[in-house]
Amino acid sequence: MKSRLHLFQGYGVELEYMIVDKNTLAVKPIADVLLRDADGQVTGELEQGITAWSNELVSHVIELKSNGPSDDLGALHQKLVADVRAINAQLGEHGAMLMPGAAHPWMNPAKETRLWPHESQEIYQAYDRVFNCKGHGWSNLQSVHINFPFYDDEEFARLHTAIRFMMPMIPALTAASPILDGKFTGYMDKRLDFYERNQSKLPILTARVVPEKLFTRHQYQKHVYDRIAEAIAPFDTDKILKPVWLNSRGAMARFDRGAIEIRIIDIQECVAADIAVVSLITELVKLLVSEKYVSFKTQESFTTEQLYHVLRSCVKRGAKAQITDMDYVRTWGFESLSGGEFWQAMVERLGDSIAAGHQKENLKQLTQDGTLAERIIKRLGEYYTQEQLTEVYRELCDCLAQDRLFRK
């Protein structure tokens, strides 16, 4: 059994991508052609050295991830780029390719959803029975997950508090889901808007997305997992769905593997952008855990409701969100603050600690030009045709294949 890691000794990174038809860009549920072992049998996970490929809830999504904790984001970046190219080569034989972005812009989930029908299918079918997964919040969403390790309750408390404090600002950096059903939704991060509501039948599963003030494993078990178990029991009579799977807070604790997983990051247009985002968020969390910038006592003093309202503003407006909670604004050292201003300041403050590749340059570009959602809307203009929408998302596919940023 592997020994547990301490704070920031390694990171787990997961990237989700859509599989689409090369000509029409319609979703294509053929992830199983990628996930075959040496004997040609479909498997839920395929190891690829320092990375692995795995299935998701629906068959048009593939996940690329670090194969265990990694302490070298530069090496991980290069391997993930190679994986994208290898996957595109395989998909090309089936008239398909990978598409980035946090939501397909015109997928019809009611008609096009195909749940993963192989290994662990009983889990996905149970989810579908309870929640009906044929909707945008379930079957049309792609994200980046970052897993940060912790060793014991003391490290958990420091890490959980730091993540909880900074995570409301994440959509102001990463919003990438402005269009659904072919139309602008009015949100820069519509994926997260759905994320909050898609399990509303059982509110305890997501709570307020921003997690509660919890500092020990015992507290977390009592206030989160025990309450989830009680809530799901009447709906899951076969006892298939475990509370640790059902917990959908935007940052969730996994005590079984000693990690906290951030789940609210929209996936960007290319691996370079995603790894740059991972690097920046990591350095910010490190800074907060160190208490060199904001004390632990100050971080934990903010209520979940306060942080939730900051999050909602960033979900709606991305980099243009104006943060109106002046206690929060002043705690970061500002007198006024927009989402974009916050992240530009963080890049300047933390950029020298981001060493891998060209991540600092990429981050400067990302924060100067606005979120991917804003760049997509800027390119499309106020009025656009289906052909123009297709053209923009085809370019996003090129950005992923070539590992380059999308310009507004």
Automatic annotation (TrEMBL):
InterPro entries given in the database record: GCL_type2/YbdK_subfam, GCS2, Gln_synth/guanido_kin_cat_dom
An annotated GO BP: modified amino acid biosynthetic process
Domain of life: Bacteria
Species of the source: Marinoscillum furvescens DSM 4134
Pfam family, one: GCS2
Keywords recorded for this protein, A-Z: Ligase
Recorded GO MF terms: glutamate-cysteine ligase activity
Phylogenetic placement of the source organism: Bacteria, Pseudomonadati, Bacteroidota, Cytophagia, Cytophagales
Keyword Transmembrane helix belongs to the record: no
Protein name, entry field: Carboxylate-amine ligase
